[in-house]
């Protein structure tokens, strides 16, 4: 689970910086929100989830972690894919998909928080 999150996070990081680079080159900042969310929910958050699940393997093995993984990884492409289309076409028709995607992410974050709050202070932490 930890490694899966880490691998997906570097894919988002690569796409996010490429979008940033292209925006800078062509001086068109329409996709700033997609760039920022790919960086922060795709790269930063997922890399943190991955590191935390690697440090606390017992948290990674729960049903909460599995649900969190899928909610985040379905929610983010839905939310940002729909936002991308809305921003590029100027047609707000897919805004509802952006809202549904963000709700999935928020639900996943709540499950992640419950999972981490359930950890005991020295529970199955990896040792060096
Ligand atoms: C090579 C890497 C990067 C490039 C070329 C890049 C480029 C850009 C550009 C061109 C903008 C639009 C600026 C504007 O609207 O005036 C932007 C906005 C933003 N970037 Fe990046 N960026 C990079 C990396 C990152 C990283 C690593 C993060 C976060 C982890 C990040 C977070 C943001 C945020 C939050 C905004 C929105 C700022 C705002 O609207 O005030 N960027 N970036």
TrEMBL record:
<dbReference type="InterPro" id="IPR036927">
    <property type="entry name" value="Cyt_c_oxase-like_su1_sf"/>
</dbReference>
<feature type="transmembrane region" description="Helical">
    <location>
        <begin position="36"/>
        <end position="56"/>
    </location>
</feature>
<keyword id="KW-0812">Transmembrane</keyword>
<keyword id="KW-1133">Transmembrane helix</keyword>
<feature type="transmembrane region" description="Helical">
    <location>
        <begin position="68"/>
        <end position="88"/>
    </location>
</feature>
<protein>
    <recommendedName>
        <fullName>Cytochrome-c oxidase</fullName>
    </recommendedName>
</protein>
<feature type="transmembrane region" description="Helical">
    <location>
        <begin position="94"/>
        <end position="117"/>
    </location>
</feature>
<feature type="transmembrane region" description="Helical">
    <location>
        <begin position="12"/>
        <end position="30"/>
    </location>
</feature>
<keyword id="KW-0472">Membrane</keyword>
């Amino acid at each position: 689970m930890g490694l899966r999150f880490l691998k997906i996070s570097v894919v988002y990081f690569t796409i996010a910086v490429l979008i940033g680079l292209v925006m800078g080159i062509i001086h068109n900042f329409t996709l700033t929100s997609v760039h920022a969310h790919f960086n922060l929910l795709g790269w930063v958050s997922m890399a943190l989830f991955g590191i935390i699940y690697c440090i606390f393997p017992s948290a990674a093995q729960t049903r909460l972690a599995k649900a969190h993984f899928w909610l985040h990884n379905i929610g983010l492409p839905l939310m940002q894919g729909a936002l991308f289309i809305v921003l590029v076409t100027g047609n707000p028709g897919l805004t509802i998909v952006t809202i549904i995607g963000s709700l999935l992410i928020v639900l996943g974050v709540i499950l992640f928080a419950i999972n981490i709050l359930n950890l005991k202070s020295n529970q199955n932490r990896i040792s060096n």
